[in-house]
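WP5 quarterly update. Target: DUF2062 domain-containing protein. Source organism: Sesamum alatum. Length: 194 aa.
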Amino acid sequence: MLQRFLFWLLSWFRIKIVDPLLQILRRGTEPKQLAFSAALGITLGVFPICGVTVFLCGIAAAVLRSLCHAPTVMLANFIATPIELSLMVPFLRFGEIITGGPHFPLTSDAFKKVLTGQASHEALRSIFLALLGWVVAAPVILGGLYLLFLPCFKILVLKFNAVPSSPKKAVNSISSPRKPLNSPSEVRLKVRDV
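Structure tokens (predicted):
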């Protein structure tokens, strides 16, 4: 039974995380863009209101367009889901520290009232404090994750990248001083990239 569960877990991890990551790495995206996108996806993925993170990542990908890699943002958001649940209380406590407000007691009754829509003023205030904690912590999380992911993605891109990372590097690596500037291989490369 345990072996079957471990086999299922490993195959799920490979299908849902490893295979999409390998596809992303093989498409030739720059390591800086991948590191920023992964950091952004995780930062938005730990937003302390459940069910909102996918929309936030979609909006960020639409607004930032070429600055971020949308599949990487979404994959990082997916990976951050269990982290999101574990960081709700720390964001709440951080928001309480920032405002110097009273300590909100976390009881099952308060959680039940929030879920049923009968939230009291205190419960709504706690949600606001958790959001405030996330807003203050988000730039630090984003910057720290970017610095952590950049060397990792540089190594991974070198290892798994199937195409050159930029067209200029590809043209320079193909053309040599003996070939004319408009050689057939250079023209094929330009046509293939379009």
